[in-house]
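# nightly structure sweep
# worker-07 picked up a monomer target from the shared queue
# config: single-sequence mode, recycle default, output format = structure tokens
# input follows
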Amino acid sequence: MAEWKLKIRAFLTDNRTLFGVWFLVGLLAGLTKLNPVRHNNYDIFCGVFRHLIDGLNLYAAYPTEYHDINHYGPVFSLIIAPFAMMPLWLGMTLWCVALAMFLYWAVRQPQFSRAQQIFIIWFCAHELLTALFMQQFNVAIAAIIVFSYVLVEREQEPWAALLIMIGTLVKIYGIVGVAFWLFSKHKGKFILWLIIWAAVLFVAPMAISSPAYIVDQYQEWFYNILAKNDANLFSDMQNISLLGFVRKTAYACTFGMTALRSVINHVTLPIDSWCTRYSDLWLILPGILLFAAPLLRFKQWQNTYFRQALLASVLMFVCLFSTGTESNGYIIALVGVVLWYTACPWKRNGWDIALLVFVFILTSMSPSDLFPRYIRTEFVRPLALKALPVIIVWLQLIGEMILRDYSETTAIDNH
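# output follows
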């Protein structure tokens, strides 16, 4: 029996198995979504390239091509171009595989222990599949944030700055990588490269269009983001965040679940009240202060685990404090959850293990058919409950970063 356990453990931790699992997740996601009604997001992405080539508005509706509208910056046209020029079946499959492999490459860097790498790959496999089923760029955003941290650790600030600006000019989220500037040993160089890459990437799409058109599209993108933020407040598919959880729960407590579901399903308009009028800044500003508070512990900056804890905080923060967070965006947060659990020199207790299980069940599994449908449709989605376990983890992480000592000499393997 003991021999079989060793063989199973060896198989599950073998590099070929780890690579194969995420490669197959990407391949499976691409192949199973070839049905025309099941790859709407990929159609939108390819539309960014086609419409830019044709000089069309990137943020207009094109109902004959796809549902919804594009929300990514013009530079995304260059990222999706190689895939958009391929036949659909090949381009979408390679897109999903490329996203999976990009994140795999990021988490397999030697800045993370082997135990951390294995934990991330297995714990996040289901969430990765969820994101790839929607062909979502959020997988790349997770990789960009992780790689930004890794490259700063390696003192390769020019490449970190490039990734940060790509993430920013595609989907804004990448800007959070600037937080790692604090740990850079070449802060001036880092800022200079951010400015250089911002300029280069801003003008890059002009190579296949025109300067006036690209400038106009950036303006359109700005207005698109503002409009999307307002539309997201009571959206069923967006605002699955701390912001959405608070607003939707407050509305349900005030007017009842039936009223909330009616608003979310666009049957009625939200009732004018305090829980529809307040600004999210009342949550965002305290959130920023909480995020920043641990950084006042300057002596802890020298500890690898503390810096990894900041990476975990960044990965969760970007999901929890954005009204645009979708269910498939939680591939970003779940990498952060694993780093929270592992980036500490003390032994995790029963509460921490229970919280990790809570994250996996409610955050990762709730969108799947393995989760009770009634609970998912009647409570989890309307109340943005997918965010709740990550909210608790993030608050605990902030508390640990403020109170705990990350410089303990005896690091205990948490696995």
